[in-house]
Write a structure and sequence with these properties.
alpha/beta, 2 domains, eight-stranded mixed sheet, 13% strand
């Protein structure tokens, strides 16, 4: 029996007989798909079955590892996936995570942002605002590496390093159902970053993303995972939530209470054209997003917040 048929039978049997794929099975079947040995229809069926049963950390980690074996290490410090986008309403705001990334890059971190612009969703995506903060869009991984070395930050579209993944995301419009690939792409880490940020929306996924990183087993990768604004990799300062930290040693959870910080400086204007009545929310979102990313490095929230606040104050004084 072929590998794909074996995997479909494994996850698609009756209630008593079915079980999730192991890491090894998931890696092998995705590797075969990326090598052209498995057809789109078979892979789509497998992914739909996995989604109905809820994907496991081993399944996602195996899929991710297969993609990562095809992308060179680009020498980034921070891996920053941006796939959800933000709703076009006043409660969601502009893509303030992009400003947070720009400020961190200006402080010396090499940051690779990557994403997919889902035009039918009608959401605002990071990719449409890159010029506002002078972030270049890379044509391929090699180009991204060149930009990182010169500018310290780059944006690499999913289609330019994992076109197969973009095709798989598009299956939602054909079959009417999202597949686990939406979870996979957030963990691809095409830049080989030692730090990472994961934003998601649905309950259970912040923990899943952290566990996926641990299963992948990168010995020098630390990732912060949380419920992001509209599911994006941007921290919502108003939300109290449990955040998850995956380090080479373990996966931990921390409860962070939502609060708006008083007294944060505000720039004279926002590069995204944020309205005046949203400026305080913008400042808090940027600072708390930087805090979350720095927490992945320091494992100390007060220290991370102190550094984030200092970077923000310096930005406002420019």
């Amino acid at each position: 029996m072929s590998s794909i048929l074996e995997c479909i039978r494994t996850v698609g049997r009756g209630e008593r007989g079915r079980k999730p794929l192991t890491f090894e099975q998931a890696y092998r079947i995705m590797d075969e798909y990326l090598s052209g040995q498995v057809g789109d229809d078979q892979m789509a069926m497998l992914l739909m079955l996995i989604r109905v049963q809820n994907e496991t950390n081993e399944e996602i980690a195996g899929f991710v590892k297969a993609f990562q074996s095809r992308v060179p290490d680009l020498g980034a410090d921070i891996d920053w996936p941006c796939y959800a986008g933000k709703r076009n309403d006043s409660s969601s705001g502009k893509p303030w995570n992009l400003l947070a990334a720009r400020i961190l890059a200006d402080s010396g971190y090499k940051i690779l942002m990557h994403g997919y612009m889902d035009k039918p969703s009608g959401r605002t995506h990071v990719e449409t605002h890159l010029q506002d903060v002078n972030v270049q869009r890379a044509d391929n991984p090699e180009h991204a590496k060149e930009i990182l070395e010169k500018e310290g930050i780059a944006y690499l579209p999913l289609a330019n390093f994992a076109p197969e993944a973009q095709t798989m995301i598009g299956w939602k419009h054909r079959y009417g159902l999202r597949t686990p690939i939406n979870t996979v792409v957030r963990a691809l880490n095409p830049g080989g970053g030692r730090l990472g940020v994961r934003g998601s929306f649905h309950p259970g996924f912040p923990q899943l993303h952290a566990e996926v990183e641990h299963v992948i087993g990168n010995k020098s990768h630390s990732v912060i995972s949380f419920k992001g604004q509209n599911g994006e990799s941007e921290y919502n300062p108003k939300v109290s939530q449990t955040v998850w930290l995956s380090s080479p040693e373990k996966v931990e959870s921390f409860y962070w209470k939502g609060s708006m910080h008083e007294g944060l400086s505000l720039p004279e204007s926002c590069v995204f054209g944020t309205p005046e009545d949203e400026m305080e929310m913008m400042a808090n979102s940027v600072v708390d997003t930087m805090t979350a990313v720095l927490f992945a490095e320091t494992h100390d929230k007060p220290e991370a917040y102190k550094r984030a606040s200092e970077l923000w104050e310096a930005y406002c004084r420019r």
